[in-house]
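To: structure desk
From: M.T.
Subject: fold request, one chain
Message: Could you run this one when you get a chance? Sequence is below, nothing fancy, just the single chain.
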Amino acid sequence: MNSIKISIAFFALLLSPICWSQNTDDLMPYLQDFKSVSANNIVTVTSYEKDGNHYAYAGGFGGIDIFSLDKAGKLTPIGTQALYKKEGPARGMVADNINGTDFLFVANKHGNAIETFKILDDGLLEQVSLTMDTDETHLGIAITLQVVHMKQASYLFVGGLEETPGLSSFKIENDGKLSHVQSVKDDEEIYTDGIIGMFIHKIKGKSFLYTGGFQDNGVSSFRVYDNGTFKNINNIGDNTTDRYLTGAYPVTGVQLGDNYYVVVGHRHHKYYERNGFIKRTDFTYHGDGVSVFKINRKGALVPHFVLKDDESTKLQGQTRIEIVSVKNNEAVLAVGTRDDASIQLIKLDENGTLTPLNYLETGFSIYYGLRSHQIDDTSFLIAGSNRFDLKKVATYKVAPKINRGKKVLRHIVNLKYKDEATEAQVNEAVKAFENIKNEIPEIKDLEWGVNDSKEGASKGLTHTFTLTFNDDHGREIYLFHEAHIALVNKIGPIIGDVLVMDYWTEE
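Reply: Done. Structure tokens follow.
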């Protein structure tokens, strides 16, 4: 019930250790905080550290919401930034330092433009450049950005979708303006139709860029030269047996020991209407999986390993893969999913093998908005929902899994209604709250009652609702469920005050 400023206390989480366990196999994402946003459809989230302060940027239709982020993972709203044409949505946001100045680069999807903002000392933004699409560039439906630092200059690579697919390179000037260097139009050989993921590897002094083609179902590798130009190296397409590249979506990478890996996820075209958005409708669905490619000495992609989704994992509709940590020659990654509506943690070892860890059902689908951020020794994930009705951004701490044993979670909502609320309105609100158990099956039990305390310490609160959940997943699903949001919107106007507390107990 965020819209009426409910604070949720997670006592067990606040008391849990903030440092990483020596064993990564028991890691789990835990919700720390969530806040409302003004932009619709939070499709992109990024973060940045400036002068020891940490900031999160959540972009959607209309603008960018700006938050400070503290060591406990708490978000504090500090401002908003409108987009060109006040449209967007903001996609592919990336923050970086260019010759001493901090910038945030934003792909304005429906504006067919790249916006450059200077990150000010307080984390707020100031637009310094607007780069519009031209006949020779590929900024139409721009959605993905990647900064590449070379010896003499830095370059911004841009990938687009739909009308004018291709790959473009721009030199980033010291003032944040972009100068076009090279563009390559998508063709039948390279996989650049719908670049929704890019990653750069630096290998023995050479720079290599890897892209995923959402519409043409494959991945490509490019050599990037010191002047910002680039050349295709190799391309690998989907098949119907052991590759999972239909709808290639997130792309990331990591070096472990002497090995360089690129990790690619996908949101299969089966999750879309065949005669709508998807260009090639003759696909075959044979499951969901996360693909690992090993990079050879020429910078080319080589298929290496696939982690296939099963009943114990949440990998349907992968839209974002973030590197959470790299320690002891193994990496922990977080996979955000749109169709499973979860964050799945996985481990990549030095040999390039993926192993599933724990997952958290977030209660909302993640589109492009998942970002890993480190503060001291603590790893956080920042996630935004693509639901227009939710308009939330949330933070999660990645920490050792808490052994709940046979405990259940009690979610206690204490509230009072406004003096002007009629008896009929109050009765209707109570019935609506009672009915939420029928709407959200993850609620194990719900009971309520009217305050009968004689101690005079109830602070005017009159009604108590107690909800019981079996696990962390149930609470997350409830918090962000459409029925819960509808309940808040329905009864919120007559709520005078509210106090919410959660605790774990033996049943």
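Reply (cont.): The chain has a mean pLDDT of 92. Let me know if you need anything else for the meeting.
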